[in-house]
Design brief:
This protein has about 130 residues and is mostly beta strands. It contains one helix and nine strands. It has a four-stranded antiparallel β-sheet, with no helix packed on it. Strands 1-4-5 form a three-stranded antiparallel β-sheet, with no helix packed on it. A hairpin with a 7-residue loop joins strand 7 and strand 8.
Length: about 130
């Protein structure tokens, strides 16, 4: 069984990842914030039912991090860990999140790690996602 605490209560919850099949671009008002061909697609289901939209996690080195500012907002997912949030400068608040200290081993790819090579991922809200 997966060691993340959420699986103790919901053992049939599933996070599945695979390399995205194409290019993933994230734009805000026409400005390119992220551009990658190395995204990881994550699907989240419980007993076969979809519980969240498909997310695309993008390596942080493919994200224009200078366009983001860390916020004080935090959340916790019992399956993925603690999420830290970023806002797009001059744009939506808390629109990017990062699992910098995950409770489980996802995504399996080391390419989705921050530029310092620690394991973390980030996502951009609205179905488009940024990873760290």
């Amino acid at each position: 069984m997966n060691p993340a605490p959420g699986y103790k209560k919901y053992p049939n919850h599933e996070l599945s990842t695979r390399p995205a099949t194409g290019r993933v671009q994230v734009k805000y008002k026409g400005e390119l914030i992220a551009d990658t061909r190395r995204a990881v697609e994550m699907r989240e289901t419980h007993e076969g039912s979809v519980v969240a939209p498909v997310m695309y996690y993008v390596p942080r080195e493919d994200v224009r991090m200078e366009r983001l500012v860390r916020s004080s907002h935090r959340t916790h997912c019992p399956f993925k860990g603690d999420a830290s949030y970023y806002s797009v400068k001059g744009g939506p608040e808390n629109s990017v999140w990062s699992y910098e200290h995950r409770t489980t081993r996802w995504p399996p790819s080391r390419s989705c790690s921050r530029s310092t090579r620690t394991s973390s991922t980030s996502a951009l809200a609205s179905g488009s996602v940024i990873a760290a």
